[in-house]
Prior knowledge:
42% of the residues lie in helices and 15% in strands. Helix 1 packs parallel to helix 2 (41-53), helix 3 packs parallel to helix 4 and helix 4 packs parallel to helix 6. Strands 3-2-1-4-5-6-7 form a seven-stranded parallel beta sheet, with helices on both faces. The longest helix has 26 residues, at 106-131. The protein starts with 7 loop residues before the first strand and ends with a strand. The protein has eight helices and seven strands. The chain is globular, with a radius of gyration of 17 Å. It is α/β, with parallel strands linked by helices. It has helices spanning 17-28, 41-53, 68-82, 106-131, 149-152, 159-178, 207-211, 223-234, and strands at 8-11, 32-37, 58-62, 87-90, 140-145, 184-191, 244-248.
Amino acid sequence: MTHQHQRVVLVTGGGRGIGAATARLAAARGWDVAVNYTRDQASAQAVADSVRDAGRRAVVVRADVADPAAVQAMFLRVDSELGRLTDLVNNAGIVDAAMRFDEMSLTRLRRMLDVNVLGTMLCAQQAIRRISTRHGGPGGSIVNISSAAARLGSPGVYVDYAAAKGAVDVLTLGLGKELAAEGVRVNAVRPGIVDTEIHADSGDPDRARTVGPSLPMGRVGRPEEIAAAVVWLMSPEASYLTASVVDVAGGR
């Protein structure tokens, strides 16, 4: 296949926050977009509508990325409705209430790893089977959304989340090298504190506003600023970049 092949991206957790901003920007730059969500169908539909407003095709697909059967069904649906995948944005992720590590339940730890690590792995496997030239694919890229927490450790807040994102960083490094000769570039973006809905899930919905003044730039990031890095990584401009992690954290 030539580089004229239509670009099709699946954005997991694409209904809100960084995922939604990425889906919108990708559409503006010429991608057809599959918007994955778990709970908030209305938000995902709104993102899909804005993709179509940009003149691109969109499909909304519900799936818990931690569920292998749901992940497989999601990719099959993208195959049938949008055609062969060229890019994946592994954005789906969760946090939980801020607390000490020794107070975290096994249920919490399992869910944290199931969504943030296993979910990222399961989606990457499905994407590779479609994108890699070894599988007859057109080539393309995978962008994993990590977090500055992987560098900072997030003590007293969510060490489990930080550790999960550390795993995502290493997955990015290994897969980038493993797939480098197969037309698949694998990179990650590590956002700092970004003004999205995720902070409410850690019990601190105002975190973005209260922390902002203490950061090097005196403010938190906007979802669109993270999306710009993600879409750049998927673009031909980043053609020699793989197994790399890009910090978009305002100097944090």
